[in-house]
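**User:** My hope is that you can spare some time for a protein that puzzles me. I have put the entry right below:
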Amino acid sequence: MTGLTREAAEAAAERLKVYGQPQRLMILSSLLAGERTVGDIEAVTAIGQPALSQQLAELRRAQMVLTRRVAKQVFYQLADEKVVLCVRAIVAMFGPNDADAAPAPRVPAGSPRPVEQGAAMFARVRP
């Protein structure tokens, strides 16, 4: 069988709705750098405290972030590698372009892709 079942497609669509909210996506992308406190997330994203708390609660309910409490500080991190992969893919597709990076050459449909060198080539997203 190829593709998703109806149930899997519905589950994926629900999960994608969580990624579809701009503030949540900003929070998730800020956590790519590693664990952060609420204050750190607020400083990086410029999302005010009431909205930030609401969005973090939604991300916890969706099991996309994990929390760790130390005294009064709450630390947040991405929940698992699937979340990391999705956020990295979104950032790669829609994030700011690196001005120093050369654009990937266009390859006509059906043509073999050129072999690229370098350790991070597996992470490059192609159109």
Helices lie at 6-19, 22-30, 38-45, 49-61, 81-94. The longest strand covers residues 65-70. The two ends are 25 Å apart (CA to CA). Residues 6-95 form a domain with the Arc Repressor Mutant, subunit A fold (CATH 1.10.10.10).
